[in-house]
């Protein structure tokens, strides 16, 4: 941690983060939220090497690709990092095996409740399991099922989102559950002062995605990073569900032509449902593949008009490219300053 702030604030920050840092095995209880195509070997190892906790986004990767990504990340860092798996991935079981073979210490399950057996398998392999909890009742259920930690992510976040804001989730879930398992708060965090606030409410740490996209170490295309630097909070809008029969999880991304073509994609898939050419699960998988492809076009190819530029509302606080260590130092300094001010 950088020493611009006096030791009072930094000591308080370290104390408030201790539960999170002990759980993750890192120095700063900041998880780099997994971002498909973005959270790969370079960004993940940079985050872990800087003292935070990088998480590989498996996204739509095959087991072979995940295997390579884990191995390559290990070549770049000896520090702990995690792997994020999407519950609806058709090869989830094999992906869990890959994590076990590589003795991944922390698995994050995203995209819905963990399927039967997955909790026991992941924990049985010796990994700590972190799940997303979108509401208090589900958070309690996950804790009862044995998950080791929770991420509560509000609708300010980039990517797939739930309907409730981070501040409301934090107020509903932290007071009753923060003593039971470590809870990491995500969504809309761009300034360290807010990190201090959530820690004081009982969070073990935080998870940020948007804020790390413009890191030098992030492989996102320069056009993708430029779009982030130009955007303000209000440009990060949510996708709209066109057909009531086809429930799609909303996605927050920068407003562009792609956000309009998503409507056409939904109509196309709804028609396949009508004609009974696909089942609901397959229809939803098609939507997810659509997003994975659209995000790849923007992140990797730099097509920020017809690709998806997923971004959270904190995008307005991303003003320049900087190194991961610098971004982290800024956040921790801001948090320490806030704690110091509150202690006088
Ligand atoms: C471009 C992008 C891609 C994302 N992809 C994933 C993903 O594949 N899996 C996942 O669990 N979360 C994903 N997220 C959410 C992040 O992991 C993280 O929780 C979120 O970015 C936190 O909110 P913030 O964007 O306000 O910092 C993504 C977010 C962004 C911005």
Quick description:
Helix content is 45%, strand content 12%. The protein is built from twelve helices and eleven strands.
Description:
The structure is a single chain. With about 350 residues, this protein is an alpha/beta fold. The chain has 2 domains: about 5-220 and about 320-344, TIM Barrel (Alpha-Beta Barrel), CATH 3.20.20; about 220-300, no CATH class. The chain contains 12 helices and 11 strands. The chain has helices at about 5-25, 40-50, 65-75, 90-100, 120-125, 135-145, 165-175, 190-200, 220-230, 255-275, 280-300, 325-344; strands spanning about 30, 55, 80-85, 105-110, 130, 150-155, 160, 185, 205-210, 235-240, 250-255. The strands form 2 sheets. An 8-stranded parallel beta sheet has the order 1-9-8-6-5-4-3-2. Strands 7-11-10 form a 3-stranded antiparallel beta sheet, with no helix packed on it. Strand 5 (about 130), helix 6 and strand 6 (about 150-155) form a beta-alpha-beta unit. Helix 1 (about 5-25) crosses helix 12, helix 2 runs parallel beside helix 3 (about 65-75) and helix 10 packs antiparallel against helix 11. It starts with 6 loop residues before the first helix and ends with a helix. About 50% of the residues are buried. The structure holds flavin mononucleotide. Flavin mononucleotide binds near residues 33, 84 and 158. Flavin mononucleotide (FMN) binds near residues 34, 36, 110 and 310.
Strand order, largest beta sheet: 1-9-8-6-5-4-3-2
* Most strands sheet: 8 strands, parallel
Distance between the termini: 22 Å
Structural class by helix and strand composition: alpha/beta
Q: In the CATH hierarchy, what is the superfamily of the largest domain?
A: Aldolase class I
Helix content: 40-55%
Helix count equals 12
Q: What compounds sit in this structure?
A: flavin mononucleotide
Determine the mean pLDDT.
95
